[in-house]
Amino acid sequence: MKVRFATLVAAAIATGMPAFAQELFFPSMVYRTGPFAASGIPLADGYADYFTMLNERDGGIGGVKIKLTECETSYNTEKGVECYEGFKGQKPLLIQPNSTGIAYQLIPKVEADGLTMLTPGLGRTSVKNGAVFRNTFNFPSNYWDGASIIIKHLLAENGDDLKGKKITLLYHNSAYGKEPIRTLEELSKKHGFEFNTLPVDSPGQEQKSQWLQIRRDRPDFVIMWGWGVMNSAAIQEAANVRYPMENIYGSWWSGSENDVRPAGDGANGYKSLNMHGANGDYPIFADVAKYVKDAGKAAGAGDQIGSIMYLRGVYEGALAHLAVLKAQADNNTKEVTPAMMRDALEGMEVTEEIMAGLGLPNFAPPFKATCENHGGDGYALIQQWDAKAGKWSAITDWIQSDLEVIDPLVKADSEAYAKEAGITPKC
Amino acid sequence: MSDTILYAMEVTLNGLMAGVLYALVALGFVLIFKASGIFNYAQGVMALFAALTLVGIQNGQIPFSHLINAMFGTQLHHFGWKVPAVLAILLTALVMVGLAILVERYVLKHLVNQEPIILFMATIGLAYFMEGFGDVMWGADIKKLDVGIPQGMSETVDQLTYNLFGYGFFIDTLDIVAAVVAVILVVTLTLFSQYSKQGRALRAVADDHQAALSVGISLRFIWVLTWSIAGFVALVAGIMWGSKSGVQFSLSLIALKALPVLMLGGFTSIPGAIVGGLIIGVGEKLFEFFIGPMIGGATENWFAYVLALLFLVFRPQGLFGDRIIERV
């Protein structure tokens, strides 16, 4: 099956397929306006440009054109739910809410409406348990994987011993920011480090108190689960209080150019997670340039290509692309439905060979989804910011999370949800 | 001296500095409210717009380049020059004056004699318009703002306090500069208001629109003047906040920090904005530092409002606000 799928991907890319009357409808929940627009624009551009490239180069997916419709959420949960209610009647093939708050609201809705949602690296972590969350997926990695990967990296860097070390979590005081706490508490018990938390209220422009506490307590490492201006403000404050930048580890939502550039040279050495590569020079960009940018069809100003958030948008597009290809192959039809997409995502196996075929070699971790596992195998890497060169570089290979710790947490949380929502887990 | 007292002193100093930054935003609100009775919801967005314009001018960015490129397929982005910071600030101040003229001509002029709530709603519309306009004009990416203000730990304060207490206090140099700028701004505004012809006219309008009109003061000119000064104050606030964490659209949310300051200091008092800012700054920082860890932290946003509400119980007009006496 793996070979067949990879061959199909290659054939679809190389030759394209005859045009087909029906369209593949994908809504895109974007935040091009509001306080988080700086991150939302490249994310939306990457997603849109990827589909434009497929339409222009291949005539869509499997010969069926893609119809992408953007809905502005301003990263606001209420607006996001309004967007969903507006397009759900058009039977969207895949919903990617791009917001943990919106994802939480949509989880029961997609189940009830028979639609399919993908929340890569965001949303509710325990949707990994596909037996409970039948229509929601969160591969390749989730927040708890991310927290565990940072600890694994720290263990590797500190001779496998974190006993007596102090680790502080500086987090956005929201559903998103609180996600890694439970995992880090478990990991602190397992590895014997002292764990403290410091919340920052949204938007996080003012963090003087938190950084004075960090200055006083001198934790060995700071893990940051921030978003938007909180990230850049934290990095600036860290530079101000002279906290060693290389001892700060951000989540993958605290690791874009937007987060480090305002602090200038002060941000040099800052590290963060990433669930995909940071190199902006993948072969796919030749096609993006040829079929999208140079053809004047770029989603935005065309100036975001290659940035971290743009790459994330491309990755989200690539995952949707692969799911459609699999749905078409599995059902021997070009007319894909949301239910087919759900089944395709559930059986998806993404290998390096497949990603290279898309023009994204060494870009994303391989993973395999199953009915029980909607979250992949929990891989991510650590990247570091080089202020002088103005770019991120991966400093580790893919690191797998501590599944011994993560899986029981996922099981407990998802089962609690199932009990509360009256769901009988099944596969 | 015990460590706790030293930390408390350090936190208090930093709270005072943060309070000055809040006061800078609150000042803009006070100026407009004093002169026209309008609560200017757009003040935070004005700070954002001013900062965006400043960075745009400084970097030689072509305004509306994204729109032009989308319409005509061009690849315009920058003029290719850099403008010195001082000149860029002056040019931005001129843009803010232009904005004041436009606001008076296209918004306020048509709403003379309307209820304050109508004027307030007009400023909500103005805020949304300016946010979108700023986006189209300068783009939504995060911009680094550098007008030469030093940033980072003040060595002098560190050394001085170390010699005194054996523990060096952290104070951000940018905050010290902001405090000095705020003092200069308040003194200048007070002198302007007390001793200049326009300043006295401004106070006359603030006291009674009809009476001011009857002695020949132009209400339209005063409104333009007030909004220009508020625009300049917004520019100063935008520079200080933008230098801290880059110029980004969340900058408009700093207005939320000014509201408790206004409630506490009074909507009509310039010194009130400063004192209110300092009380809020110190209060929220001390509370977060000492009580925050016991109750889960992240207390600053709500504590500022609770503190302001407590003051309101005893002084509904705020510390320095005018007492409202309605005779029947």
UniProtKB/TrEMBL annotation, chain A:
<keyword id="KW-0732">Signal</keyword>
<feature type="signal peptide">
    <location>
        <begin position="1"/>
        <end position="21"/>
    </location>
</feature>
<dbReference type="InterPro" id="IPR028081">
    <property type="entry name" value="Leu-bd"/>
</dbReference>
<dbReference type="Pfam" id="PF13458">
    <property type="entry name" value="Peripla_BP_6"/>
</dbReference>
<feature type="domain" description="Leucine-binding protein">
    <location>
        <begin position="30"/>
        <end position="387"/>
    </location>
</feature>
<protein>
    <submittedName>
        <fullName>ABC transporter permease</fullName>
    </submittedName>
</protein>
<comment type="similarity">
    <text>Belongs to the leucine-binding protein family.</text>
</comment>
<dbReference type="InterPro" id="IPR028082">
    <property type="entry name" value="Peripla_BP_I"/>
</dbReference>
From TrEMBL, chain B:
<dbReference type="InterPro" id="IPR052157">
    <property type="entry name" value="BCAA_transport_permease"/>
</dbReference>
<feature type="transmembrane region" description="Helical">
    <location>
        <begin position="261"/>
        <end position="282"/>
    </location>
</feature>
<comment type="similarity">
    <text>Belongs to the binding-protein-dependent transport system permease family. LivHM subfamily.</text>
</comment>
<keyword id="KW-0813">Transport</keyword>
<keyword id="KW-0812">Transmembrane</keyword>
<dbReference type="GO" id="GO:0005886">
    <property type="term" value="C:plasma membrane"/>
</dbReference>
<feature type="transmembrane region" description="Helical">
    <location>
        <begin position="289"/>
        <end position="314"/>
    </location>
</feature>
<feature type="transmembrane region" description="Helical">
    <location>
        <begin position="164"/>
        <end position="192"/>
    </location>
</feature>
<dbReference type="InterPro" id="IPR001851">
    <property type="entry name" value="ABC_transp_permease"/>
</dbReference>
<keyword id="KW-0029">Amino-acid transport</keyword>
<feature type="transmembrane region" description="Helical">
    <location>
        <begin position="84"/>
        <end position="104"/>
    </location>
</feature>
<feature type="transmembrane region" description="Helical">
    <location>
        <begin position="116"/>
        <end position="134"/>
    </location>
</feature>
<dbReference type="GO" id="GO:0006865">
    <property type="term" value="P:amino acid transport"/>
</dbReference>
<keyword id="KW-0472">Membrane</keyword>
<keyword id="KW-1133">Transmembrane helix</keyword>
<keyword id="KW-1003">Cell membrane</keyword>
<feature type="transmembrane region" description="Helical">
    <location>
        <begin position="12"/>
        <end position="33"/>
    </location>
</feature>
<feature type="transmembrane region" description="Helical">
    <location>
        <begin position="221"/>
        <end position="241"/>
    </location>
</feature>
<feature type="transmembrane region" description="Helical">
    <location>
        <begin position="45"/>
        <end position="64"/>
    </location>
</feature>
<dbReference type="GO" id="GO:0022857">
    <property type="term" value="F:transmembrane transporter activity"/>
</dbReference>
<dbReference type="Pfam" id="PF02653">
    <property type="entry name" value="BPD_transp_2"/>
</dbReference>
<protein>
    <submittedName>
        <fullName>Branched-chain amino acid ABC transporter permease</fullName>
    </submittedName>
</protein>
